Structure of DNA integrity scanning protein DisA:
Amino acid sequence: MATQRLTKHNAAMVQAAVALAKKRSADALLLLLDGSLDWKRIAEMADGIEKPVIVAVDAADDLEGASEAGLKPLALNKEKAPMLERLQHALLEAAADEFIRTNGEVVAVYSGFQQGRLDSISHLQLDERMRRLTTRDLQMIESRVPLQTLKAVVDLAAQIGREGREGKPVGTLFVVGDTRKVLEHSNDSGVDPFRGYNKNYRNLLDAKVQDDAKEIAQLDGAFVVGSDGVIERSRQMLEVSHEDLTMTKGLGARHWAAAAVTRKTKAISVVVSQSTGTVRLYQDGNLVMRIEPMDKAVTWQEFNFEPPSKKSSDEKS
Ligand SMILES: Nc1ncnc2c1ncn2[C@@H]1O[C@H](COP(=O)(O)OP(=O)(O)OP(=O)(O)O)[C@@H](O)[C@H]1O
């Protein structure tokens, strides 16, 4: 478990962020932390803020007691990521959990320069285009696959679409549910790296397994995933006829196969397009949801510590 100390300095920063959030009537206050804190104290300090006070840390364990204190807990699982990425991720997750509106204003306090020391406060105006599918959207297609599994797979797919792998775009396909039937329509396209592993090492609800899946997503073929989130097979080529389907122009074999398999089975397909990063969900052969990659809509600027050079400011004036 990691803890973050509520030093005099950190407390003063939280107070300043609370004051700013109140003054600007922000839609939420976000505390991006390196570990657990005295949540009751934080709630007391934020007293008077009518809007959500979100506390985000990397590990879910460190958020124990936060809900009870009246705060909105957010586990990030982004320990090694650079600060701006963690902040962006926290905002996206907060929007997905409906703690904030996707076009709201948020005051965020975080350690931008030194771990454990809250040194930065940002007042962020979120972009309306920062659209993230919400649990409510997913509930509409929950019918056959439990929401928890669907959410984990869609989150992972959106992440793959957004980030790719090592700077390269990655496309992939997850076919979720009705595995027995799905496997009747699929063949190995190569050695399946998950084969032979215990179920616990194949469950996509687990962050480590998600990382493994991101690696394997670079290889050809689809993941066949059970309703419980367990990867039953990876690297599968689907063989299904798709004569009776209609498909958006420009989509290729991966998307046709994804849609077709949901016509023949009760599974839901979650496809990431390599060329655009867009995630599409198919059910009964139809497109039921499309999620655009968000990092193309939300642009984050790096901090710039250098004052503009004399020359460039002259040019502007
Ligand atoms: N029947 C299939 N089952 C599983 N995977 C497939 C199937 N057909 C194609 N793929 C995978 O999709 C990859 C890309 O194929 P293609 O470019 O035709 O698809 P696409 O639908 O245009 O997707 P993208 O937008 O990602 O390019 C292939 O290299 C292969 O890994």
About this structure: The chain has nine helices and twelve strands. The mean pLDDT is 85. The pocket of adenosine-5'-triphosphate is lined by residues 171, 173, 220-222, 237-238, 251-255, 257, 273-275 (CB under 6 Å).
